[in-house]
Specification:
about 525 residues; RNA-binding; Rossmann fold; five-stranded parallel β-sheet; three-stranded antiparallel β-sheet
Amino acid sequence: MVENNLKVWPFIEAKKLLKRFENSKKKECIFQTGYGPSGLPHIGTFGEVLRTTMVMKAFRYLSDIPSKLFVFSDDMDGLRKVPQNIPNQNLIKENLEKPLSSIPDPFGKFKSFSEHNNNKLIDFLKGFEFDFIFKSSTEQYKSGKFNEGLEAIFDNYEDICNVILPTLGKDRRETYSPFLPICKSSGKVLQVKVKELNKSLKKIVYFNPITNSEEDCSIFNGECKLQWKVDWAMRWYVLGIDYEMNGKDLIESYILSNKITKIIGGRSPVNYTYELFLDEKGEKISKSIGNGISVDDWLRFSNKKSLELFMFQNPSRAKRLFFDIIPKTTDELLKLKNDYENLPKEQKFNSPIWFIDEKNEEKTPEKISFNMILNLASVCNAESSEILWGFIENYYPKIVKEDNKLLNELLGYGVVFYKEFILPNKKYRNPSDKEKIGFKKLIEVLETSSTDEEPEEIQTKIYEIGMSLKFENLKDWFSAFYQVILGQDQGPRLGSFIKFYGLKKTILLLEEKLSDEK
RNA sequence: GCGCCCGUAGCUCAGUUGGUAGAGCACUCCCCUUUUAAGGGAGUUGUCAUGAGUUCGAGCCUCAUCGGGCGUGCCA
């Protein structure tokens, strides 16, 4: 059997699901990932959706059972703190503790804060062409779709409390309730003790500190929501979730939700715990601290596929997420892509490429690595990818631009890298009188040169200027160009540089530096 | 205190079911060079955190110790 050779983690996960379906009458396999819309989607959200999608892909290969992915937004949750990265902070402050879907959009574009963030998430995920169905918690509650599950929780109220209460601290134990009523006068999510269950009317009775009176509310149709761990269990139960992964920080929550699911007669999904992302110092990445790097950061310096590769590798191992791994991962991607074609068919399934870029249409010349491109960008004033392309073409004369879309893309990232990290750190020194004469001569020579000239010819002309000025060490003449004109100690071969940078542009650059001098 | 994860070359990390320790970067040398390397080739680098145990054989399995991270309140 081919299946025995499928050893990468998404296939191992998919096989667990196959086993689950052996004794099940279920006709559909549902995957779920969760998202808290109090902030914008971050790299953890992305990783979870991507990795779940990879399991789904493996499952679809192994099984004919239809499958779908729910991306569930907890937009019924009360907002506890004002996020620091948004406008109209006062507006949010006035609406704290209300469900996210009842808080106005501080950006003024949508009906609510959560709708804004939900839309950001959907756009974000669509940008990666994920195949998913979005689910809003608020919508599920208010439409009554959760009623069946809410009733199951209500009917097992005591058993559930007996599971949760021992895990809570003393203070919280006093106020805990699986049901959190939504205050009818203030709209806030109330964390209050339930005094009584009205079993015939399916209502809860509680003391509302806002109105200072005893009130009741139905458990149905969004009049109250469930506390998180119970909510998770109820959601598995009602939506029939078969697979959900979570970060290591949620292990305890999963165990509890698992117990609750059993109590209400459900079956917990197959679960996979992935490790958290760490920053450069080895500490947990957190949205509020802002350490580590974001999806956007990554995509400024490399492509989506490299980020996907990073997410594929070793989810069960804590990984440090900082800038240096971007070029590294990109080069691994290039290598894997180049190797993929020659893999025996059964080995292809174990390659990350099968999961992230099965068609694998775009490849790069074997000898060119992303690290090399970045080095190249840092030495040759890479203001545009055209300049980089010139150097590459010079080195690999047979290369055809139209056939190397991916390479071109990478050159673009090289330019970004140059502008971001190299350009701001440049230090230009003033030329000596002798060097000034040399540069003026160089301008004259370039002005009379044809644009057809080969790099070698230009190189010879520069060399001759150096000779005519009798530099003690000819190297100093070339160094002067790097230090005065390019703002760095070393650089590319000048003949090539001027050719690819452009004669006219080089003249302008020289004139600019000569007149800038103070 | 308890639970889980991690500790492999100077740095960042791979090491599949136990079978002679690997890669990239860095470093050294050579090639290429009418100044250079961004390139090509060769080379150096390890008490696999420590100590014991199981085994013919341990980076991998077991136990203990040390060091780091996360969880163990609330919230999600």
